[in-house]
Amino acid sequence: MSAAVTGPRRRLRWLPLAPATVVLLLFLAGPIGYCVYIAFTDLQLTGQESASFVGFDNFTRAFGDENFRNAVVLTLVFTLVSSIVGQNTLGLALAALMKRASRTARTVTGALVITAWVLPEIVAGFLLYTFFSRDGQLNAILAWLQLPEQNWLFTLPILAVSFANVWRGTAFSMLVYSAALDDIPREVTESAQVDGASGFQRLWYITLPMIRRSIGTNLMLNTLQTLSVFGLIWAMTKGGPAHRSETLPVFMYDQAFNKSLIGYGTAVALLLLLVGALFSVVYLRLLREEV
Amino acid sequence: MRPTAPLILSLTAALTAGTLAACGGSGSGDKNTVEIAFHKETDNKVTFRDDYLKFVAEKFEKKYAGKKVKLVPIQAPQQDYYSKIQQMMRSPKTAPDLVYEDTFLINSDIESGYLRPLDGYLKDWKDWDRFQPAARQAASGADGKTYGVPDGTDTRGLWFNRKIFKRAGLPADWTPRTWEDVLEAARRIKKEVPGVIPLNVFAGKGAGEATAMQGFEMLLYGTGKDPLYDTRSKKWVQGSKGFRDSLAFLDTLYREKLGPEPEQVVDPNVTTKVVTQLLPEGKLAIALDGSWLSQNWIKTGGKPWPQWRKTMGLTPMPTQHGSPPGEVSMSGGWAWSIPAKAGNPDLAWKMIQTMQTRENAVEWCIRGSQVAVRSDVAEDARYRTSMPGIDFFTERVEHTHYRPALPVYPQVSTAITEATEAVATGDSSPKDAAKAYDEQLSGIADGAVTRK
């Protein structure tokens, strides 16, 4: 049969896929191509008769722009704190604890954590803005505990938005790890226990190596998602005060829509894509290695 | 070919065509509907603009049988509203027939070719002569054509709470002559009436154009002539003492804790907070703000506060050292424009005319606490008696300043808000912030800068 599939037949087989291909080309490849094109022009949203091609100007400008470099650093901090350390570790810890917890505890915790995840980003943003704000719930709790007030939205905005992202995104890691932990055969853990391995040793030598692939996948998805977080930060701080929580997506929006520099904003978007690609390459590498 | 091949082929074609057609979207092809895009306040209770447009729409639909009005409220912070309408105007599919343009942005949008010149319509419209020349100027482009019909203006000054002033031992007819007088009063309030914010001057990106205009430019234009843009040499002013002094005023205000807390300053909702919370609740003594504040306090406003007539006093903002004319005001205002890609421009023009019958124009000035730009409206008895303070703000028109009506102004304004934010949050000294502004300005103005 396979030998018979030649020439026109082979082409015909592609036909049923044609609608999907056309739509993908039009709505995925099209905008991306347009985006790349715009990044090399000085297109403005307003105040300009016609845009012109400017080559690599937008990119050289970005690297010379102090605020851009600031945004890159903050993006890395935000990703590291909220995604790699926060969501990932907390998700694993929750999954491991829930495995041992009673049924009720598991249901309640699971429901609560997933609620945070299900909330639309902008709603979560406003909730956490009120939580952290000067007269918000966090300060009410701190006052009740006789602890000093916090004012992180102003003093440490990047930490406040990182916490917010941990709060919102941990559920995803928890779900991934719950599934992964369920896949570890009971016999392996039990025999380790019989051999006298401590809890930490079992985690380090049995559990982690066995869920290595899930860790890789989870890290990659988390990181890519965190890199593009915009609504949460926009609702909470607008990137301020004075650029102190301005990650790349916020910087990009500010340039493109507040300063009307669409061309420059798009160039920044491409650079953001590059950062994401770098992370992906690293994780893919980790995933490929065999134990 | 197998017998099924033609079937697959036709199915494929049908599917592709179907999918694409579904994406084609439905532009406002309706010739009998005029679509009006306007800014809706983020506070849901503030609906005077929506209410007025519904009021006019009803009259319009009655007058032109078979025609419909579709309101497209855009509920967003002002800055996001601007971006949104600009994006809508880029495509004929999304362009409204009528759009509410801030006159500070109109030149930028004219330059982009988003708007349609109205001269053809205006030459046959006798009411156009009743508009103040300055207001007509505000809606015209560098090519001398007019692109919008302004529906009012605004002026700015100092609002102060007489009750707090009494407790601080300050006069009920307070008339500061210099910046120092203003700061002195604030210091006194801080000392005598603890727990009250003495003086609010907007700073920071959160308040957007309010920071640039109500806040910074009200100071800057009191430091000398043409402090922002030199009209004679057509260049933007760089490195001026007035600019540094104005930042220094903010620095004093926030370092001595005479203003709101820094995190209140950078709060994106600060403009609404001042008018609907801080002032009515008696938590703020002096506000450097605009003529429209009282529209929030009337019965249909966001924060009805009937006592404001007795509580709030008004006084002009003085110049830096009291030099003539002794007071500063800035003016802006909004205009109705027809996008270049509008589907029904003629119907849109009829709508503008309906809004601008004398009766409806007076109605708008009253509902929107607008300072009139039409001579017949300014004389109207109903307008003159509509609101305490309307006389005060109408008088300010004499010495008011308009912002440089240039396409790059919005970018300059953003640079100003960044400088004020850096100073108010204590991130930069006035000198460093002024330097950072100068650097940005060179880029924005593409070298068209001059030093003073």
Automatic annotation (TrEMBL), chain A:
PROSITE patterns: ABC_TM1. It comes from Streptomyces boncukensis. This is Sugar ABC transporter permease. The chain crosses the membrane at residues 12-40, 71-97, 109-132, 152-177, 219-237, 261-284. SUPFAM superfamilies: MalF N-terminal region-like, MetI-like. It comes from the Bacteria. Residues 73-283 form the ABC transmembrane type-1 domain. One of its GO terms (biological process) is transmembrane transport. InterPro entries: MetI-like, MetI-like_sf. It is found in: Cell membrane. It holds the Pfam family BPD_transp_1. The lineage of its organism: Bacteria, Bacillati, Actinomycetota, Actinomycetes, Kitasatosporales. Keywords: Cell membrane, Membrane, Transmembrane, Transmembrane helix, Transport. One of its GO terms (cellular component) is plasma membrane. It is a multi-pass membrane protein. Belongs to the binding-protein-dependent transport system permease family.
From TrEMBL, chain B:
CDD domains: PBP2_TMBP. The keyword Signal applies. It holds the Pfam family SBP_bac_1. It comes from the Bacteria. Keywords: Signal. Residues 1-21 form the signal peptide. This is ABC transporter substrate-binding protein.
